[in-house]
Amino acid sequence: MYIIRIFQKSINNPSCLLLPFEVDSVSYDNEIKRTVREFYGKIWKTERTCCTPSPVSVKVKRVSEHPVHEALLNEIMPLEGKRILDVGCGNGNTVLKIAEQVGPYGKAVGIDFSSEGIAEAKKKAAKLGLDKITEFRVADAEKLPLEDNSFDAVISECVVCLTPNKQKVLAEKTRVLKPGGKIVMHDVISKAHMPKAVQTNSELYCSCIGGAVSQDDYIKMLKKAGLTEIKAVDYSEESAINSQILLAATDIEDEKDFQEVVNFIRNGGVGYALFVARKPQQTNLRNKGN
After folding, report:
1. What is the pTM of this model?
2. What does the pLDDT look like over 244-255, one tens digit per residue?
3. Does an H or E element contain 223, and which?
4. CATH number of the domain where residue 33 is located
5. What is the per-residue pLDDT across 151-162, written as a single tens digit (0 to 9) for each?
6. Exposure string over 139-149, b if 16+ CB within 10 A, otherwise e
7. Are 285 and 174 in contact (CB under 8 A)?
8. Per the count of CB atoms within 10 A, which of 62, 120, 165, 218 is most buried?
9. Neighbour-count burial for 44-70, b at 16+ CB within 10 Å, e otherwise
10. In a domain, 21, yes or no
11. What's the number of domains the chain is made of?
């Protein structure tokens, strides 16, 4: 059994309610998904972006303004004629940007488990006249409703850290990727042992922090998924996320928990990295998600 403390904080209300409860591992995963889905549903309704969870939190650069976003796009160039999948596409901005360059014979597809985000993405595509070369679906990243070997590249931006079963997500990305294709993603990384007070704070989890793992862990998971030619580029100097953790720590009453968070920040806290990997031309990827 897991003992989880969730800080249920409304996006429009800075007050915080502590709700202790017990859940098994399956319920724990489902609770994470529910919390993140509701959180981002509210974000996409108000056109906020990833990593800006509430008015009282420190403002962090929009992903689209971050240098790692352009680095990700550069990794999948040229785009003409390609089929590109964005896992966790939110309100579709990156998919639409890609759609402008894939041409009439390409396709830009986005999946997200937030129906609010997908609804906004579809509206934008129609308004821009890109609805014929884009496709948006509500789906779970751990179980993609897509065919094997069907995309030239699969991308994600600050998404894998939000999922409870990261290995399964990476296995699904690899499954739908064509042999020789690329997985390109950027995500928050943990640079020190993360305290439970950070992992179990729902605002920090939904802000791409509480579920982060180390750069080495991501590389190991990419290898386990059957990918090769793996590279990681650290963009931590461009990140201001640790200040958000310190802000959340001011609500911690237990002195030991508070000190663990402070030490976590002193030891590096979290950073940011870009990951690129390729699916071999010939490979057996069965059971890679276990």
Report:
1. 0.85
2. 888 878 888 889
3. helix 215-224
4. 3.40.50.150
5. 999 999 999 999
6. bbbbebebeee
7. yes
8. 218
9. beeebbbbbbbeebbebbebeebebbe
10. yes
11. 1
Whether residue 196 lies inside any domain: the answer is yes
The residues near 2 (Cβ < 8 Å, ≥ 6 apart) are 22, 23, 24, 25, 28
Burial code of 230-254, b = ≥16 C-beta within 10 A, e = fewer?
bebeebbeebebbebbeebbeebee
> Which residues, in sequence order, are CB contacts of 64 under 8 Å at separation 6+?
49, 93, 94
Residue 3, Cβ density class (10 Å: 0-12 exposed, 13-18 middle, ≥19 buried)? exposed
Entry field: residues in the chain: 290
The residue whose two tokens read 């990295």 is 273
Q: In terms of residue numbers, what domain contains 34?
A: 2-276
Residue 81's identity, in one-letter code, is G
Q: Is residue 16 included in any domain, yes or no?
A: yes
Both tokens of 169, joined, read: 């997500």
Which class for 284: exposed (0-12), middle (13-18), buried (19 or more C-beta within 10 A)? exposed
Which of 65, 70, 50 has its CA nearest to residue 274?
A: 70
Q: Where is 203: in which H helix or E strand?
A: helix 202-206
